[in-house]
Specification:
By secondary structure, this protein is mainly α. The protein is built from six helices and no strands. The protein starts with 21 loop residues before the first helix and ends with a helix.
Length: 142
Amino acid sequence: MSCPTDNGRDGNSSSAGHGLTLCTVITGLLVGILSNTYYGLRIRANEGMSMVSGMLGSAIFKLLSPLTRTSFTRSENMLLITLATAAGCMPKTAGFVGRIPALEFLNGPGENGPIHIQFDNTVLWSLGLVFFDVMFASLFRK
């Protein structure tokens, strides 16, 4: 796997210093989904694990360094940490840690319960939260 990055060392790149490379995005999402999201779902906590994300990302790029043309920069590491932390916060923000399990245990058998939420409804719930979170966050940003 070759990560064709141009980190702007020669000054000819239009994305000099941004660190936005395909390898960084893919690695950040993989670290976030495979490590941070699993951790958040497993222990039911809202920990983005930014420090762990940075160390895992640096270790992955260090292992892959013989296959790449350039070195892993600080801006790439920061992007990787941001993506992995955002993915790691997903279980809490989507309601998988508190809200959805609480709904399943809210009603007892005498109250026509428990409520079992199907997978497609869970995905719809998560997409709705993503849409409304981004929409309201942009409205209240100023």
